[in-house]
Amino acid sequence: xxxxxxxxxxxxxxxxxxxxxxxxxxxxxxxxxxxxxxxxxxxxxxxxxxxxxxxxxxxxxxxxxxxxxxxxxxxxxxxxxxxxxxxxxxxxxxxxxxxxxxxxxxxxxxxxxxxxxxxxxxxxxxxxxxxxxxxxxxxxxxxxxxxxxxxxxxxxxxxxxxxxxxxxxxxxxxxxxxxxxxxxxxxxxxxxxxxxxxxxxxxxxxxxxxxxxxxxxxxxxxxxxxxxxxxxxxxxxxxxxxxxxxxxxxxxxxxxxxxxxxxxxxxxxxxxxxxxxxxxxxxxxxxxxxxxxxxxxxxxxxxxxxxxxxxxxxxxxxxxxxxxxxxxxxxxxxxxxxxxxxxxxxxxxxxxxxxxxxxxxxxxxxxxxxxxxxx
Length: 375
Prior knowledge:
15 helices; disordered C terminus
């Protein structure tokens, strides 16, 4: 049961991706995925900052079942569970939270795929279900031996801090800003210019912090070789590795794994840049009306255009034993390829193959045939 709650946390993220592929709530889906990724990124930075071992590394009486190999404070599952479950409700169903007194959706969206009006009983059930999932996710990490109670509680605190600050100060601004940018059709205006500069600056800052924390862990923290070797032995035993003992140079252990988590912000960075280079438009009402008229075969064929995103993924299996090579030559490039395919190549392929519809996300201008007047 605890393993179920530990792994089911991935389901809402998958649902967010499906919302992007299948529904007209594409901007909401993007913001939801961005918020989840920010949670993963911040957790990687925090773990390297605290550099605290997991319970099953240091206590012989504790048997690790989860076998996580990066540092444990704060709990990533506890932190992201708060973000993932609660943000899914207030982003896709804003009426479930009283903090969303202002209408989150535009007047254009009201004519398209309106938010289902949920009765108070169902709203209460959804909130209680989200709360229970968050609690059970945290408790599961303690039961599996990969986190202490203090690490879980701290994860919950950071998760609450992030999600409520985003909800109160950021969500409506970003939602309306991105939608307004996507609706600009004048060739004289450059879309996503300001946000591209801002996100680029944030990305540079995060990478600088990530590298600094990694170097501190390499050269200042964790200098007790016997203690580190004990941690690595515990990880090896838990994983039942047949390739020999994990070393501190392995990119999936200790501070190296946390460093790679910190680079996940590159998806947000590259996605916004892709929108900037694409200069496409999006009309959710028109998209919804057009898709509603299409056949099932047409919709399935459109989904097949996402299949090329699987091609770069095997590169992530390459093990270099140098975290900088892995991050900057494999990990970040693969993330950039994935996001640029969605924002640049995917709309172009749809247009070339005749599957682009009016109102498409990042729609490339269709050339309409002009009828010549009869003489």
